[in-house]
TrEMBL record:
SMART domains: Cyt-b5. Belongs to the acyl-CoA dehydrogenase family. Gene3D superfamilies: 3.60.21.10, Acyl-CoA dehydrogenase/oxidase, N-terminal domain, Butyryl-CoA Dehydrogenase, subunit A, domain 2, Butyryl-CoA Dehydrogenase, subunit A, domain 3, Cytochrome b5-like heme/steroid binding domain. This is Cytochrome b5 heme-binding domain-containing protein. Residues 1237-1264 are annotated as: Disordered. It comes from Thamnidium elegans. Residues 1243-1254 have a biased composition (Polar residues). Residues 1255-1264 have a biased composition (Basic residues). Keywords: FAD, Flavoprotein, Heme, Iron, Membrane, Metal-binding, Oxidoreductase, Transmembrane, Transmembrane helix. The lineage of its organism: Eukaryota, Fungi, Fungi incertae sedis, Mucoromycota, Mucoromycotina. The chain crosses the membrane at residues 934-953, 1013-1030, 1067-1087, 1108-1125, 1145-1167. One of its GO terms (molecular function) is flavin adenine dinucleotide binding. One of its GO terms (biological process) is fatty acid beta-oxidation using acyl-CoA dehydrogenase.
Length: 1264
């Protein structure tokens, strides 16, 4: 019996030569351990003589006491009756009145299955309870204390296999075994006749409680999957040869199916065994083989017949056979790469029948996967148990971790998943005991596979959440977080073996395809692009892609004349569109809508020339829905909503005033009803116009387009093509407020562009594709309209596009939507997934993968079907969970040498990557409609302000008492300019200041120097605000003037009978006109307002020819040429809208430009004036007349009397000025006097007034 001490005795041992502590009622003499303690001896001395249980539990696992502290134990704390305090606590706790049944284990909430913790279960009896205790005692004594040690050593002692075999575990693990083949009794001496699948479940579950996946795989993984084929299908010879030794722990066996070229794709395995008469000659490679490193036998799946399922057999290969070679992987214990080179396998080593191996594999998969389910779910439960224990002793912010709501929430979600998975697991186990054995693979194969995916995902979730709870301890080997660190590391070892999660979705493919096209511009006049591109798309791209449906987002026809100037609806273009779709779409579901070209020259939807009503594929849907229609796609993996909206104006003017789209209140109401009431996995919205060219209104309930964006995922549109000069190559944007994407598609017209969209596991991916334009000639035989008299399409010769690749996993991080997509699916995945569209068969394509520009080590495998060309490649996403951005590039080479390339950037931390679309992204992100309106109003207000403000100030200044023109603000500004010319107050900004002062003076001088021109400009600007700019025939197809003719206002178009059409096109036209037709010419007039002689000080040395640039003949000629260009632009309106009358004659801008031309020619210093002056040789102007308030401009003698008189006069004048208006120049007078006196002292020998004057100027010019 252990020696007992009381607390007072222990408290006497508190020095470094005699140090005792108490831990959980036991007394330890740690004197000799002080120097070896990892935290230093002061930590132990601080707790010396006291109960250190709390401090110990905070930093150590209980196993430390069992393994290390036992040698320092000297006794225990005891009371007078011999019962320790801890025993009293246990006795108290055991009397919980809520517990009415039998309990087992530590009773950590949900740390064990519910039937351990006083819950009733129909599945278990007394033999199960007996087995449970037996296995737990063994694990806690023989396995759990040593897991970390074995994991670090990457080795398990051989005696453990013997011990577990003698305990009967090997026999229990492999399922039902003939008693004659069992070397030892089953665990707990349970009779074989009593043994059922729940006994096997308990053994596996309790073994997994050790929290080491590596140990479990090494101890029973290889045996549990490698021996059953021999047990169930092997000959008696093989059973006698193998079974007893393996169950006794003296021999090891493993299953060898997975190959470097493929894992779950068993039907396509490559290892081959040729029949050589009395033996098979085996060649091949196997990868990730559990227990392969130390296995004595290999159960090898190989090909003995033809391709596919029917040519596979099982062979038992012995390690001692020549040609067998193994290499260990640095992952789980014992996992190996196995090579077979000309291995001679005797015929008697054939397991079962030749070419029936696939059946045996499928049979074996159920037990293998169910074993993984049991282990993975127990590991998840270990995470729950460890988290609850740790959270109950760890304290932060003054309370236990478990008392924080966020931690309780994490634990609750962990429990929810573990318990639901365990219930499913028990249900499947029960079914396996009732369903006839020959039906098990068929009836339970799918559910067990899905449960395996559920269990491993639960394991992954719990491991991650436990790691968050443990913090830094969760990635530190050993210590309190030992199990969590190890389990988190081993998650993938359970998600991938037995068939990865994606393997099951190969049979339930969570991928949906659709295809988008925009801006067809079918034309009866254009031989290149346009129609011919669309026909090639239908003939060469659509049959290869095979989408579920096609959506065309407007501009179906071009509607332009041969010169591409005017617009009109042409019947032939619509006939070509309808016939091409009917004859070339191959029964593909087709949706379309109108674009601005489709509504050129339309008075209304009911207009006779609205040919979309007759020839549009979705015209009836659009008509019935009053501009909005939708369709839904339901899959086994979710429901998806697709909404199309016609955003064309209700009246469609001819070009160019038909660029912007509109969402009226009624249309917004219909959109709200289609998008917001029902929740879908994803909603997609289609329209022609990007939001930047869209004027959205509000619904009657106040919903905006932004509110709609909260409920849809992607907005698909067209319209902008690619802008010009490559500025719009990336017309895509992301809205962080609504977590939605806007994706503009380039045009079919010029670039042959179309878009393939896929939804894979609810992740939306897309790729934009261009037809090979270089392969496409002009229109067929000069026939621009490829239509026969019977409306049959004349199809061009087929082209051969390169393979098209769409990567769906990992998703491109530039287009992720964190709140609307399950981005965690990529982190959980085991395969890269991508689609390859090609006219060639999959086996003829050469696929290469590059990750971060390095060859991906795992090959790609085709796992798709006819309408879904899906490829996969094994990967480990955790390798890229490093908070960095990575690239994945895939190349597909066709037999004709063409290469298709696709590349995405991805991250595993759910962070987005910027689209970096440059100007194109800015265009989509911004709102041109709002921007043009703002700029137009701003431009008008800015011009009016810069004209009116100087006029008002000049008038105000004159009304002040004592005002003299000499001291006006304009003269003061000129004085500042003169100072800069003289070099006074010089700084690096002097040049800028001079230009600033000069232009301020010009604006102040403009109403004074050119009052008629100022009045004209002011009246014109005011008229642009209030009056119509011009009258025109905007809709030539109108039956009368009421329908066709309208007035152009800055704010919109006004048709007869007060039909007001607010159009953003008017703002767009206005900003260009205001900038190039008005502002530039007003600035030109302002430029001329200040004469050149006012800008230069008379005291400088500038002499001779001086004139403003704007006054020179050559420059004014350039301005006149510019005027001609602007007049041409204005005159073109007559070409578009009804001729000279009324479009030009009743046009404000036209008459403005006429007046501008007159002013350029005959106005101030105009061309005529300049020519006349040149002929009279009057091109030499004086330096200046002198600014009265500028001393340096004084043109007189430099003798002292005259100079003194000059300063006296100047001073007298200054004294007469009002204090509020005069400019103080006394300092400058004194400076000038000093300069003059200094110069006279230096040049006393030269007393002539002329030299004195020159000296003054020279001296002043040198002042710097």
């Amino acid at each position: 019996m252990a020696k007992t001490f009381n607390i007072e005795e222990v408290a006497k041992h508190t020095i470094d030569t005699d140090c005792w502590i108490i831990i959980h009622g036991k007394v330890y003499d740690v004197t000799n351990f002080l120097q070896d303690h990892p935290g230093g001896k002061k930590v132990l001395l601080k707790a010396a003589g006291t109960d250190a249980s709390k401090q110990f539990d905070a930093f150590h696992n209980p196993s430390v006491l069992n393994k290390l502290a036992v040698k320092y134990e000297i006794g225990q704390i005891g009371s007078e009756d011999g019962v320790s305090p801890e025993e009293e606590i246990v006795e108290e706790e055991s009397s919980n009145p809520l517990i009415v049944g039998e309990t087992f284990g530590d009773m950590v909430p949900f740390g064990d299955p519910m039937w351990y913790q006083d819950w009733y279960s129909p599945y278990y009896n007394e033999s199960h309870r007996k087995l449970r205790k037996f296995v737990r005692d063994f694990v806690e004594k023989e396995i759990m204390p040593f897991c970390h040690e074995w994991d670090e050593a990457k080795a398990i002692p051989n005696e453990l296999f013997i011990k577990t075999a003698k305990a009967g575990f090997q026999g229990a693990i492999v399922g039902h075994v003939d008693a004659k083949l069992l070397p030892y009794a089953l665990p707990a001496n349970i009779d074989a006749s009593e043994w059922d699948n729940f006994h096997s479940l308990i053994v596996t579950d309790e073994l997994a409680r050790c929290g080491s996946g590596g140990l479990l795989w090494a101890l029973c993984g290889g045996l549990a999957i490698g021996l059953p084929p021999v047990l169930h299908f092997g000959s008696q010879y093989l059973k006698d040869k193998v079974v007893k030794d393996c169950l006794a722990g003296t021999k090891m066996i493993c299953l060898a199916i997975t190959e470097p070229s493929g894992g779950s794709d068993v039907a396509n395995l490559q290892s081959e065994a040729k029949d050589m008469g009395d033996h098979y000659l085996l060649n091949g490679e196997k990868k990730w083989i559990t227990n392969g490193v130390f296995a004595d036998y290999f159960t090898v799946a190989c090909r003995t017949g033809g391709p596919g399922f029917g040519g596979i057999s099982f062979l038992l290969v012995e390690r001692t056979m020549p040609g067998v070679w193994c290499m260990a992987f640095r992952i789980l214990l014992g996992t190996a790469y196995v090579t077979f080179e000309d291995v001679k396998v005797p015929k008697e080593n054939l397991i079962g029948k030749e070419n029936k191996g696939f059946k045996y594999i499928m049979w074996n998969f159920n037990s293998e996967r169910l074993g993984i389910v049991i282990q993975a779910n127990r590991f998840a439960r270990v995470c729950v148990e460890e988290s609850i224990k740790y959270a109950n002793k760890r304290e932060t912010f003054g309370k236990k971790l478990i008392d924080h709501p966020v931690i309780r929430n994490k634990v609750a979600h962990m429990i929810r998943q573990v318990e639901s998975t365990h219930a499913w697991m028990e249900s499947l186990t029960y079914q396996s005991t009732k369903i006839p054995i020959h039906l098990l693979p068929l009836r339970l194969g799918g559910p067990i596979a899905l449960c395996k995916a559920q269990a491993t995902q639960t394991f992954e979730y719990c491991a991650r959440e436990a790691a968050q709870i443990f913090g830094g301890l969760s990635y530190t080997r050993g210590g309190q977080g030992e199990k969590i660190e190890r389990l988190y590391r081993e998650v993938r070892a359970y998600a991938i073996p037995g068939g990865s999660e994606e393997t099951y979705t190969i049979y339930y493919l969570e991928i949906m395809l659709d295809l988008g096209v925009s801006d067809l511009h079918i034309s009866k006049f254009q031989p290149k692009g346009h129609t011919i591109h669309f026909l090639h798309f239908l003939q060469s791209a659509l049959p290869v892609t095979k989408p579920e449906f096609v959506v065309v987002t407007g501009d179906l026809i071009d509607a332009k004349d041969k010169t591409r100037t005017t617009s009109k609806q042409y019947l032939e273009e619509w006939q070509v569109y309808r016939s091409a779709v009917e004859q070339g779409a191959n029964d593909t579901t087709w949706y379309d809508m109108r674009g601005n070209h489709d509504c050129f020259d339309l008075t209304s939807w009911q207009a006779e020339n609205n040919m979309y009503r007759t020839y549009g594929e979705s015209a009836k849907l659009l008509d019935d829905g009053k501009g909005v229609y939708s369709w839904q796609v339901s899959k086994s993996f979710g429901d998806y909503n697709f909404v199309a909206v016609d955003t064309c104006p209700k009246k469609g003017p001819s070009r160019p005033f038909n660029f912007f789209g509109y969402l009226t209140t009624n249309t917004m109401n219909r959109l709200v009803s289609k998008i917001m009431p029902v929740k879908y996995n994803h909603t997609f919205l289609f329209s022609h116009y990007p939001t930047t060219t869209l004027l959205p209104g509000k619904s009657t309930e106040g919903y905006t387009f932004g509110d709609l964006a909260d409920h849809f995922s992607v907005y698909f549109c067209g319209h902008l093509h690619r802008l010009v000069a490559g500025l719009g190559d990336v017309l895509k944007s992301y809205n962080s407020k609504t977590d939605s994407l806007e994706l503009e598609l380039s045009d079919m017209k010029d670039h042959g562009s179309y878009r393939i969209v896929a939804v894979d596991h609810d992740l939306i991916s897309f790729v934009d594709v261009d037809l090979p334009i270089e392969q496409i000639p002009s229109a067929l035989d000069g026939r621009i309209v490829p239509l026969t008299e019977k409306n049959k399409i004349i199809w061009p010769k087929k082209i051969n596009p390169a393979p098209v690749i769409l990567i769906t996993n990992p998703k491109d991080s530039k287009y992720t939507m964190p709140t609307k997509e399950p981005l965690q699916n990529s982190r959980k995945s085991s395969h890269i997934r991508f689609l390859v569209f090609s006219e060639y068969e999959s086996q003829n394509l050469d696929i290469k993968l590059f990750v971060d520009d390095k060859h991906h080590p795992f090959p790609a495998k085709f796992v798709g079907k006819e309408n879904l060309p899906l490829w996969t490649s094994v990967w480990e996403p955790n390798d890229f969970d490093d908070f960095e951005t990575h690239t994945l590039r895939i190349e597909a080479t066709a037999p004709d040498g063409q290469i298709g390339i696709s590349q995405v950037v991805f991250r595993m931390d759910n962070m987005r990557v910027k689209i970096q679309g440059g100007f194109g992204e800015w265009v989509i992100w911004s709102s041109l409609s709002k921007l043009t309106r703002f700029l137009s109003i701003f431009a008008l207000l800015a011009m009016l302000t810069t004209m009116i403000a100087p006029k008002i100030y000049n008038d105000y200044e004159r009304q002040q008492s004592g005002f003299t023109e000499k001291h006006s603000l304009r003269n003061k500004i000129l004085y500042q300019i003169h100072q800069i010319d003289l070099g006074l107050n010089y700084s690096i900004w002097s040049g800028f200041q001079k230009h600033m002062y000069t232009w301020i003076h010009r604006f102040l001088q403009f109403p004074e120097e050119q009052p008629q021109v100022w009045n004209l400009c002011f009246l014109f600007l005011m008229s642009l605000f209030t009056l119509p700019w011009f009258r025109a025939e905007f809709i030539p197809s109108g039956k009368d003037q009421n329908q066709s003719t309208g007035l152009f206002y800055l704010w919109g178009l006004l048709f007869e009978k007060d039909q007001w059409i607010p159009m953003a096109d008017t703002w767009l036209y206005a900003i260009f006109s205001l900038t190039f037709n008005v502002a530039i010419f007003i600035l030109f007039f302002v430029w001329k307002s200040t004469s050149v002689h006012l800008l230069y000080c008379k005291g400088t040395e500038k002499e001779g020819k001086t004139s403003l640039l704007c006054d020179r003949i050559w420059f004014q000629s350039v301005v006149l040429v510019y005027w001609m260009w602007r007049m041409k632009e204005v005159s073109e309106l007559a070409t578009f809208y009804g001729g000279v009358w009324p479009t030009l004659i009743l046009n404000l801008m036209f008459w403005w430009l006429i007046i501008v031309a007159c002013l350029i020619i005959f106005g101030k210093n105009g061309i005529v004036t300049a020519i006349v002056s040149q002929r009279k040789h009057q091109d030499l102007q004086p330096v200046g007349v002198g600014l009265e308030i500028c001393p340096a401009c004084y043109d007189g003698s430099t003798d002292e009397q005259t100079t003194n008189q000059f300063f006296a006069n100047t001073t007298e004048n200054n004294q007469q000025d009002d204090a509020a208006t005069h400019i103080t120049i006394l300092p400058l007078e004194e400076e000038s006097r000093r300069l003059l006196m200094d110069e006279e002292a230096i040049s006393s020998d030269n007393s002539s007034s002329g030299n004195g004057k020159t000296s003054l100027r020279r001296k002043v010019s040198k002042k710097d």
